[in-house]
Amino acid sequence: MLILQSLAALMVVAYWISPSFGNLFAPFAAWHAAWGWKAAFLCQAFFCGLLPGFFLLLFRGIRPRRAVFTILAQVLWCGTFGIGVGEVFKLLAAWFGDNTSLSTLLLKTAFDQFVWTVLVIAPANAVFYFWVGRDFSFARTRREWPRQFVLRVYLPNLVSNWCVWIPVVFIVFAFPLPLQILVCGMACSCWSLLCLQLGKRSG
């Protein structure tokens, strides 16, 4: 978690102080402007689905029983959520402005983490990854569904999300709007692996 947050912080500092580093992001910004929601889907599908899938196949200790199916599910799930995240980023830019003032960054981070994440991201991920952790079996999911779902599944997901994403999403919003979904996807690679383990071990 600390490595992830440190890399995100170094990236945003390098972006604003080094024009040559910032120019590396220009092709993606143009691609995202041209492709819109399709770019958001592909970005999240790659960084949160395919890239973590490589590690699932590479390391036996975290490899699920149905590894290929898990990777495909991750690609579709995270890509679809990427579209929603991209639209939320646009909405926040319209509401609070597309600038890097401290008040703007704090307002965007607060809405993202204490409204969007609490009401949508955390409960959806909790259910999805609990199901994935039961090898995509609806019967097993129903049988092992905990009575205290909020305490045993939802809250571990939400608290882990806050620990990782409150500082990271603050940094994400320090980038221009066309680049935010890219930086979010890059940070989400490690988070996807953590979600798989949370889903497998919760309940």
Intertermini distance: 23 Å
Largest sheet: none
The amount of beta strand, in percent, is under 5%
- Count the strands? 0
Which helices and strands appear, and what pairs or packs with what?
Blueprint: H1 2-17, H2 19-23, H3 26-35, H4 37-58, H5 67-96, H6 102-133, H7 138-144, H8 149-172, H9 177-201
Could you explain how this protein is built, in words?
The protein has nine helices and no strands. It starts with a helix and ends with a helix. The protein has 203 residues and is mainly α. Helices cover 84% and strands 0% of the residues.
Please outline what is shown here.
This protein is mostly helical. The protein contains nine helices and no strands.
What are its keywords?
single chain, 203 residues, mainly alpha, 84% helix, globular
